[in-house]
Here is the input.
Amino acid sequence: MKIATWNVNSVRKRAGHLAAWLKAAQPDVVVLQEIKAQEAQFPRLEIEATGYKAEIVGQKGFNGVALLARHPVEITARALPDGDGDEQARYIEGRVATPAGPLTVGGIYLPNGNPIGTDKFAYKITWMDRLIQRTRQLLEREEMFVLGGDYNVCPTELDVYNPKAFANDALCQPQSRAALRTLLNLGLTDAVRAFDLDGACYTFWDYQAGAWAKNWGLRIDHLLLSPQAADRLSAVGIDKTERGRPDASDHVPVWCELEV
Here is the structure.
């Protein structure tokens, strides 16, 4: 089973790229971030023509997540618990059946948090705390799950092309990294690092300053696996060629395969 994540940075603008990639890559389940669309605006016909059903948690002009699947999905959450009125569309979660048992896939668009020292950064850390609590709940089931998405955190200095330039960025703050480590230390596996412990595996290149051509990248899109899913991990990939297409998203798809 192939699970993927992609921040498409406006699904209406990238619908053609998304449909072409779905046909070529053939993932079983995909979580999308930053769709920047409400449900009625989602290009459902183009996506369903490729063989996928779409579940949407949308928001007008900002944020927004979606879960696409080629298999029946039971949607188990459309927001993280304990939101206290949080209306930002940043989480979706669904459960699919596999021969090896149920698999839950969560789609995450974690807050950016910039500038640090503001309410935006405080919201980021609070949101990560809520994600940690949801992860603890999922772990109690002792089942396979994958939490995929744009985490807006570079886990280490290896995951940013110029650590000094990002020293004051919310993506690289000690508090952001500590929250992500707390999540991983619950027993999750970073799928990309399970296969490539040393290389620079970027998933995002800014539109500014020729970042793509210069390979000035960041690794902020992650697939985190429960122990039951990690035991079945057989392949991982980052589809970098998507960034080189005309009018591309500034993120690229990241995927993993589970032997189920």
